[in-house]
Design goal:
It is a single chain. By secondary structure, this protein is mainly alpha-helical. Strands 1-2 form a two-stranded antiparallel sheet. The N terminus is likely disordered. The structure holds geranylgeranyl diphosphate (GRG). Geranylgeranyl diphosphate (GRG) binds next to α7, α11, α12 and α13.
Length: 338
């Protein structure tokens, strides 16, 4: 269902009050509050904070090593400025967790995990540019173009994007070449004209328009969910998962991916700039269509709950201890505060 939505072009400027995906999910959560949903899905005892600290440390070290300072310093420093600026590292954590879940050696997925973060970071650099969202503040510090100028910020984004693919192709070891090719194909699709670029284009062109839920879902799926999808699917591919498992995990990822952006919309109107590390109330300021704007806060919260529930349901076949990180990551995405 989510897949179908993902591939289909929306009818621009149509108002769809109750898309099929939400209606079909409604029966699941009609009897549960947000708190109850969290309780129903509570993962086995698992120290998520420590898990994420470990993963972030592993990824940060690998990113630092993959991108050493070198000539031309202005470009490489600009890339390092944004990539090493912190961030939650959700996408690389998903790649490593998916590889581990299907029985792969996590170390083999590290270049792919780093590539996810490079691409995510380049999308943030470009998103913050004056021609796009025009933002001054990201990850708790001035945006890339505020420090290095627009010209270098554009080039830093370009260089991070191409280096991500180079890094996977050159530094993935101990994985069949066919799997690496599939990873490159998945990632290429996720960022191109059927992925992030598409979502961003429709987002920009929808500003100031009356946009309905179907178009909004298209934007969120492409702009945000596509990269989370690639993060999970590519981790599973590197880990040697069979096609059926990859497709189950794809559904998990598309659900958490959409939930990620629904929560982002909610946080934009409920959290401070300080907590977010980026400008709060930005969507309101530019009169962007968001889930809270179309549905209200409570109904948006319920959409996110349903998506997280549907994501976790995809993991049914895995043992509780084995799937604990993926369950906890879904919870984190659904109930995060920044
Ligand atoms: C990739 C070729 C290519 C182009 C990019 C600019 C653009 C096209 C797309 C914009 C994509 C975008 C910025 C989507 C928003 C996704 C989102 C909710 C980002 C926030 O992610 P977090 O909360 O941030 O994980 P941290 O800082 O924690 O990593």
């Amino acid at each position: 269902m989510i897949r179908a939505m993902h591939n289909r072009a929306p009818t621009p400027r149509t108002r769809v009050s109750h898309p099929r995906s939400h209606r079909a999910l409604a029966h699941v959560s009609a009897v549960a509050t947000a708190g109850q949903v969290a309780e129903v899905h509570s993962a086995p005892a698992f120290d998520f904070e420590m898990y994420m600290r470990d993963r972030a440390e592993m990824v940060n070290k690998a990113l630092d090593a993959a991108l050493p300072s070198r000539y031309p310093e202005v470009l490489v420093d600009s890339m390092r400025y944004s990539v090493l600026a912190g961030g939650k590292r959700v996408r690389p954590a998903l790649t490593l967790a998916a590889c581990d879940l299907v029985g792969g050696d996590m170390a083999t997925a590290l270049p792919t995990a780093c590539a996810m973060e490079m691409i995510h970071t380049m999308s943030l650099i470009h998103d913050d540019l004056p021609a796009m969202d025009n933002d001054d503040f990201r990850r708790g510090r001035p945006t890339n173009h505020k420090v290095y100028g627009e010209d270098i910020a554009i080039l830093a984004g370009d260089a991070l994007l191409s280096f991500a693919f180079e890094h996977i192709a050159r530094d993935t070891k101990g994985v069949p070449a066919e799997a690496v090719l599939k990873v490159i194909m998945e990632l290429g699709r996720a960022v191109g004209a059927q992925g992030l670029s598409a979502g961003q284009a429709v987002d920009i062109k929808s500003e100031g328009q009356e946009v309905g839920l179907e178009v909004l879902e298209y934007i969120h799926h492409h702009k945000t969910a596509a990269l989370l999808e690639a993060a999970v699917v590519c981790g599973a591919l590197v880990g040697g998962a069979d096609t059926a498992t990859v497709e189950k995990l794809r559904k998990y990822a598309l659900n958490i991916g959409l939930a990620f952006q629904v929560i982002d919309d909610i946080l934009d109107v409920t959290q401070t700039t300080e907590t977010l590390g980026k400008t709060a109330a930005k969507d309101l300021a530019v009169n962007k269509t968001t889930y809270p704007k179309l549905l209200g806060l409570e109904a948006s919260r319920k959409v996110a709950d349903d998506l997280i529930r549907e994501a976790i349901a995809q993991l049914d076949e895995f043992e509780p201890a084995r799937k604990a990180p993926m369950v906890a990551l879904a919870h984190f995405i659904g109930y995060r505060k920044n």
